[in-house]
Amino acid sequence: RVKKEYGPYAILAQGDGHGESKIVHAAHGIQYEFLKLTGGSTYQFRTPDSWEGWYWGAKHVWGMDSTMGHMDPKDNLVKDMAEHCEQLLFWGCDPETTPWFYLAGLPSRLMLFYRELGIHQVYICPDANYGAAVHADKWIPILPNTDAALQLAVAYVWITEDTYDEEHVERLTVGFDKFADYVLGKQDGIPKTPKWAAEKCGIPSYTIKALAREFAKKVTSIVHSYGGSMIRGPYSSEPARLEVVLLAMQGLGKPGVHQENCWKGFPRSVVKPTEATEARQGSMYGYFWPPPAQILPKTLIERAIFSEEPFTFYGSGAQICPTSDQLKEYTYPIPKEEGGSKIHMIWSDTPCRTTCWGHGNYVTEGMQHPSIECVVVQHPWLENDTLFADIILPVNTKLEEQDFGIDRDAQYFSVFLEDKSLEPLGESKSDYEAVCEVAKAMGLLGEFTKGKTVEEWIKTAYELSGVKDLVTWEKLREKDYYVVPIAPDWQDDKAGMHAFVEDPDANPLQTPSGLLEIYSEALATTFPCDQERPAIPKWVERGETHDERLSCLRAKKYPLLMCSNHPRWRLHAQGDDIPWTRETLTGKVKGADGYLYEPLWINPIEAEKRGITSGDIVKVFNERGIVLGGAYVTERVRTQVAYMDHGARCDWIKTGEIDRGGAINLISPIGTTSKNASGQATSGYLVEVEKLDWGEMQRWREEYPEAFARDYDPASGLRFSAWLVGRVG
Fold it and tell me: What pTM was computed for the model?
């Protein structure tokens, strides 16, 4: 009906990431593939959600079109860092948390290995996170989203003390003179001294000087691990660009001078298994190019819903695409004569925007907007965005499916066959099978499946994976897995960006000049008036998109900066119902009412000001809403900061305003990374924390009795029946 009335682009296909790494059974994007057979749809590009700064910032310095903006190639980084590094800076990251669901304990072992080698480990982050608590020789507690000030002050020390690699900068970069003028205050009259930075980032000037001198003195690499608060806040393009500049000033690409991101760099295997693209059902992550006719970055969906008029934006937000795409102007909707239409239906297989992405309360408004006539959701659990669906296609889990698997993230690559652990529960089907049912009803099943059964697609995935010449299908079926051997000549691979350093003409970067572009002529030309992502990386105090600094007037009402990381005890929103982890000290906090609340870390000094003790129910709030939490008073987070992991399941007391579940992203900024950068901003924003008045809780109970009558089990949280009216079962 929607297609007939408005055209195919009235349907928004939300194919996304972070499912269960399915291949044939299509964790994400399969509905988009089906809709291509019916005339198309508006495609949602999943903008990089743990790489905002790298994508929208660092790519303009070093290119890296084949990544989301982090350093590549990463060949032999582990060997090279082990042999040459004297110091590792873990900047805004936690290697004991974010890699868990991807690499298990591998990063832990690697950090211990580096310690055995005597490599100094420094953590720069607002919280003494799990990595810092175990591995740090030094913790430098910085205020959230102020890294750019610290980085500029480090550069100031190097320039004024002449302790940077001038030959390297002269030979391999463009525009350093303009950057140096800015750092020294020749452009704006403000030298970016350690004293200047100390007022911004909360780190004493003497510590900043010591860090700068140690950085210059010791062979240093900077380490990250699947995102982190540093790179996910307002204007995060700037600290990302500045990091590349700092590395360039100390010999980026020389032995021991790298950015380690995503835990790559182990010895090369004889082949790297491919994702078996033809067999991977769905457009997971938007790994395809060029983009379809009508698109929307994920962060602009609500703007598209609420906007009465067409609007333009720059960059599709596709995770893997040329940097030049960020300079391209797109229009939503496309002209009517080209088939364009506003969206009137959403078909999602990743209903988690409310808690996993930014401005969650704004998302709830969008999904309830009158112009959205139908919401279809594929999901195993009745949670978060699924609660706004008109039609739910119950999807089973990886444990209930036969599939083909590829592991390219660990020390050794492997492929494997996955069998069912149990039969599908109830009427649930895989994402692929669910869409097959829709295709069948519309007479398109044969065209959609290309005439292949699931078993045939699994074999096709094997044939396309790159290991066909290494292990036979029969042998793979016999063992169920195959570990790809290490290449005998792996030690000959040049480490990191060393080939570029040796011969930049033969190995140019994917930038217009082929060099490291500290000054971006492309940004200067395309966005001459953009003060939020200028041609050289700068400190942005405030702008038209965000005003979230402690220096602003709003800070009088909301005097704490929210630091929100990827969660320790779940993968985004997955795993929030695991009894074992909910029982841990930092898993959940049991309130006086018996409810298990998401922990809110707060420093004892800030807690004392507010009369808060550990175990209290607290409310975290700003003008965008209220989120409840359980106080965890600890010196592991610095003053002027409230810390809360994102990804807790929503449990609204009042939808769009008050949440009991601890879904902190509900109150993060509505604005994107910056004016012309469509990332999200989910850390480093202003909030206040108060001990919840029991009288206020009682008033809520009286005003919203249904919210407190939901079926709830402290061991796992809200039950399936919590959201149902009538008989269950």
Answer: 0.97
